[in-house]
Design brief:
The complex is a heterodimer of chains A (151) and B (105).
Chain A (H helix, E strand, L loop, with lengths): L10 E7 L3 H9 L1 H7 L12 E5 L8 E10 L3 E8 L7 E11 L5 E8 L18 H12 L2 E4 L1
Parallel strand pairs in A: 1-7
Antiparallel strand pairs in A: 1-6, 2-3, 3-4, 4-5, 5-6
Chain B lengths: L2 H9 L2 H12 L2 E2 H5 L6 H13 L3 E6 L2 E6 L5 H27 L3
Antiparallel strand pairs in B: 1-3, 2-3
The chains are: A alpha+beta (151), B alpha+beta (105).
């Protein structure tokens, strides 16, 4: 796992999969297949469709409320990702999956997940605010919102 | 109210973000801060109130004057959010890989 590598606005994660895009697309957009790796859901790859995902993850309480925002079949899908919480309003973010075929017949899968964006450059000024360099770098990452996860 | 919500919503506004970033560089009064923005002082004050409410900016009073600076520790819930998903997604993708291996072509 490397960090702070990209100039994009959110968490970005790239994964290389052996299976072709049409198969990965099914695993992302068919409820019973999505359930097997993400959680019980009622997804449909149609813009405007609202669905829920039960991730049952510690720290992620309750269902995630989603709405499909963009669909480009077998290429990309974007949906809102709203954490329902016991108290207070929900936490909104957005998830995009981008599928690109590879030369060897597999799929390059990119995940983009974010809720906000700050311009990055001035963030390092935080280093002067009396916080450690390591933390400043992490915050620069938050502020630039540039994170990269490697599979 | 979840502190994360405040931070996300608060930083969603571009002017507020710019205010936060300027205050990360150094402490300023409202009038100093207003210089360089095409926004009125009352508007800047409102943004400051929102940033303070979210724990992202702290205030120091000196007699009749107030000075503001960014409170980087206020970003901690955001770092937690990112850490949570940085752990969450790779673990789920591993499950996806297992699923794909077992799927018919």
């Amino acid at each position: 796992m490397s960090d702070l590598a990209t100039t994009t606005e959110t968490i970005v994660a790239d994964f290389d999969l052996a299976e072709p895009p049409h198969q990965v697309w099914r695993a992302l957009t068919e409820p019973e297949l999505l359930a097997a790796w993400l959680g019980p859901n009622d997804i449909r790859a149609e813009v405007g469709h609202r669905f829920q995902v039960q991730t049952a993850e510690p720290g992620l309480d309750g269902a995630i409320q989603c709405e499909v925002l963009e669909v480009d079949p077998k290429r990309s899908i974007t949906y809102s990702w709203r954490e329902e919480r016991d108290r207070g309003p929900a936490l909104d973010s957005r998830v995009t999956w981008i599928l690109t075929p590879t030369f060897v017949g597999g799929t390059h899968l990119r995940l983009v997940h974010g809720g906000f964006a700050l311009s990055g450059g001035r963030a390092l000024a935080l280093a002067g605010a009396g916080i450690s360099r390591a933390l400043a770098w992490r915050m620069a990452g938050v502020l630039a919102a540039a994170f990269r996860l490697a599979a | 109210m979840s502190p994360e919500v405040d931070i996300f919503r608060t930083l969603a506004d571009p002017t507020r973000r710019a205010v936060f970033e300027r205050l990360a560089a150094r402490e300023m009064s409202v009038s100093e801060l207003t210089t360089g923005f095409s926004v009125s002082q009352p508007a800047i004050s409102q943004h400051l109130a929102a940033l303070r409410g979210a724990g992202l900016v702290s205030e120091r009073r000196e007699g009749r004057f107030a000075y503001y600076r960014a409170a980087p520790e206020g970003l901690a819930p955001l770092l937690d959010w990112i850490d949570r998903y940085r752990a969450f997604w790779p673990e789920r993708i591993n499950r996806l890989k297992d699923l794909l291996k077992g799927m018919d072509q």
